[in-house]
Amino acid sequence: MLKPDPVDPRALAAGLAELWSPRVIGALDDSYIKVAKVRGELVWHSHDAQDELFFVLQGRLRLRLPDRDVELGPGELFVVPRGVQHLPIADEECLLLLIENKDTAHTGDVVSERTRSIEEQLRDA
Fold first, then answer.
1. Cα 113 vs. chain centroid, distance in angstroms?
2. Are 102 and 32 in contact (CB under 8 A)?
3. Gap between the Cα atoms of 45 and 73, Å rounded
4. Using an 8 Å Cβ cutoff, are 83 and 46 in contact?
5. Helix runs in the chain, H state only
6. How far apart are CA 85 and CA 31, in angstroms?
7. The pTM of the whole model exceeds 0.90
8. Which CATH superfamily is domain 9-103 in?
9. Residue 124: helix, strand or coil by DSSP?
10. Residue 17 in contact with residue 124, Cβ under 8 Å?
11. Can you tell me the distance from the alpha carbon of 13 to that of 50, in angstroms, rounded to the nearest whole number?
């Protein structure tokens, strides 16, 4: 799972077979560093006690928030503050790097067919 070797987040994300199924590629203190391949919509959700960092490796991501949409392109990042409802959307395939607390639930309190447990996220990327 977590290796002390250099990793290429973009290559690991590109190699993922499942959409919206993040994989842990590293740990930093109490946070996991994850990669994901996404397209379409996830679900509206929030993380009541944790912030969530989205960094676009390739493609474009729209984060729909209650009061606005945030558009991200390659090399751009945005932190969704704790407690803020958000809906990640990618019209085309998008590769992401995410930083989340180790206890952050993938889709907050919302459970859908796209929800992944931390055990699933810890599988090899």
1. 16
2. yes
3. 22
4. yes
5. 9-14, 118-121
6. 20
7. no
8. Jelly Rolls (2.60.120.10)
9. coil
10. no
11. 23
Take residue 71 and report the two structure tokens written for it: 């558009």
Token digits of residue 86: 């958000």
pLDDT (tens, 9 = 90+) of the chain, 125 residues, equals 555 789 999 999 999 999 999 999 999 999 999 999 999 999 898 989 999 999 999 999 999 999 999 999 999 999 999 999 999 999 999 999 999 998 876 666 656 666 566 666 567 75
> Alpha-carbon distance 87 to 108, whole Å?
12
Polymer length in residues for the chain: 125
* Domain spans in the chain, listed from the N-terminal domain onward: 9-103
Locate 77 and state its tokens. Answer: 């990042």
Tokens of 45: 């959700």
Cβ distance 36 to 98 under 8 Å? yes
